[in-house]
Amino acid sequence: MEAALYSSTIANIVLNAVLCFFAITLNGVTIYVLRKTPSVPKPLKALLLSLAFSDLGVGILGHPLFITRLALESRLQGDLRTSFPTFYNVYKFVTSQFAYASFLGVLSLSLDRFLAIHLHLRYQELVTYQRVVTAVISVWVLSGLIPLICQQIPKDIAYVLLAIIVVSCFVVSGVLNSMIYATVRRHAHQIHFLQVQPTVQQNAPNVTNASRLRKSTFMTIHVYFLFLVCNLPCLCAEGFISLHFDLAIPKAVYQYTITLLFLNSSLNPLIYCWKLRGVRQTIMNMHAAKRTFQPKLKL
To answer: I need a labelling partner for 5 at 20 to 30 A (CA). Which of 40, 42, 57, 191 fits?
Structure first.
């Protein structure tokens, strides 16, 4: 292995080891805090928990498997797929399942916020907690079936199928979030108009609910944008490789694109804490309770 590639491999191993710790810690805390936050609607909470479990899985399995892959490739002269076929298949299945769970999870989250902001009062009637849980289970089942199906069909057909799934998720999520942003901006002007009216006291509950909905929809837009930034470079690299343009993507660059993809799992919890006031309040209450019940040592 040449010196530049070897240095890149070591750097990526260190980065993934650090990100592994953050992904497990931040998403573990996020799952606990979301369950303890009553202000987050149950359908939205189920979708966020699904994404958090996917990100937690990246920390528990994705990062360690990628570190192992990098370590094996640094020692091998040949192809990992032929030298360690079982490990490679496990690595591809696990990483693919969490990737598809994230793709479909972001799409589901975007669709949920789109319906919440457009259906208004009908949203609670149509988007029930039971239906959302069914959708989440379907997402995870489908995320496991896609890589299994792709292993059983010719590679060219598999690449086309995966390209259709990935591009469709990106495009549909992008369109939904664009429409969400336009609607939220319009609602923001309406809220500002209500606040300056003499009847603001009568409209206060509606203004509060609209403001809370606006914050959760902006959270969805940030999640999608971050997902796009972290995943698009790796997907483009995978596309070049699948088209046999390997020379166009140096191996060191390809390693960093995968690390960037995994970085998404450590950043999502920060967005939830930043954009959801209820989550921040729960964390502060937990911290305050911990300080209150912390035993004081007398010297």
So the answer is: 57
112 vs 76, higher pLDDT: 112
Residue partners of 223: CB distance under 8 A and separation at least 6: 51, 106, 109, 268, 271
CB 224 within 8 A of CB 184: no
Angle between helices 85-119 and 129-152 (to 10 degrees): 150
Nearest alpha carbon to residue 220 among 278, 268, 188, 164: 268
Inter-CA distances, 203 with 15, 195, 277, Å:
50, 8, 21
- Does residue 194 have a pLDDT over 60? no
**pLDDT of 30-59, one tens digit each?**
999 999 998 888 999 999 999 999 999 999
- 38: phi then psi, degrees, rounded to nearest 5: -75, -20
Cβ atoms 224, 174 nearer than 8 A? yes
Retrieve residue 99's tokens.
Answer: 């990737």
